Amino acid sequence: xxxxxxxxxxxxxxxxxxxxxxxxxxxxxxxxxxxxxxxxxxxxxxxxxxxxxxxxxxxxxxxxxxxxxxxxxxxxxxxxxxxxxxxxxxxxxxxxxxxxxxxxxxxxxxxxxxxxxxxxxxxxxxxxxxxxxxxxxxxxxxxxxxxxxxxxxxxxxxxxxxxxxxxxxxxxxxxxxxxxxxxxxxxxxxxxxxxxxxxxxxxxxxxxxxxxxxxxxxxxxxxxxxxxxxxxxxxxxxxxxxxxxxxxxxxxxxxxxxxxxxxxxxxxxxxxxxxxxxxxxxxxxxxxxxxxxxxxxxxxxxxxxxxxxxx
Length: 311
What we know:
- By secondary structure, this protein is of the alpha/beta class.
- The chain is built from 11 helices and 9 strands.
C-alpha cells in the first residue's frame, strides 16, 4: 500500500469520526421518536448509496430462505434491514443519554427472563450472554446493568481507534464495560469469577469453524464455546427486538450445556451449532431486524440458494 493511499485512508477515517461526533451531538438532543425517524432516513440513504450492500442483502436472503421467500418479499426485507440499521445506529447514540426510568419504561421483560436475571444476580454467577445483530442488543445490556448485573461486552474494534474509543465511551454510559478482541482476556475471566455477564455478538463472518446456519455449513466464531468450556459458566442465548409499538422486548432463546466430553473440537462444533440454531430461530421470527447486508457467508464453502428451504 502506497504512502498516498495510507494518507487518504487516514484522512477519510478522521473525517468519518468528525461526522460521527456531529451526528452524536444532534441525536443526543432529539426526542427518541424523532431520532429513530432520522435513523430510518439515514438507513434508506445508505441503501441507495451502496448498491453492492443491497445486492449482498438480497443474495443472503436467497441463500437463507430459498423459494420460501419470493423476490418481492426479499426486497421488502432488504429495504427494512437498512432502515433497522439506521435506527440501531441512532439508538446507540441516544440511549446512553436516557434516564434509567425512561429505559425501563420502554423495555418489556417476560417473567422467565426477569427470574433468570435475578438468579444470576443473587448467586453472583458469571454467564455468557450470546446474541446476534438482531434488534438492539445494547438496550438489553443497559436493562441488565440497571438490574445490577455487571456487563462486559467482548467486541471487535472499529477500524479507526478514535471510533473505537467513542463506542467504548457510549457503552460505558449504558453501564457496559467493553473489552475489544486482541486485548487481554484477564478482565473477562476476572469478571466471570465475580459474577459479571459477558456479552458476545457471534453472528458475523469468521473462518474458525464451519457449522450449520440456515441449513448451510457457515464460517462461525469458536471463541464463545472455548470460553464456556474453559470457565464452565452458563451460556444464555438472548435477544432484544423492537415490538412495533415504540418499545423493546428482551427474550431468552435458550440455555446451552457447555460440559466438556474430552473431545474439544467436537464440543466446540456442537456448542456453536446449537448457538447458530437458536440465533437463526430469532432471525426467522424478526428478519427485518437483522443485518442481511453483512457478507455472512464470505468465508464459507460456496453455496447456492436452496429450493424450498422452509422456516
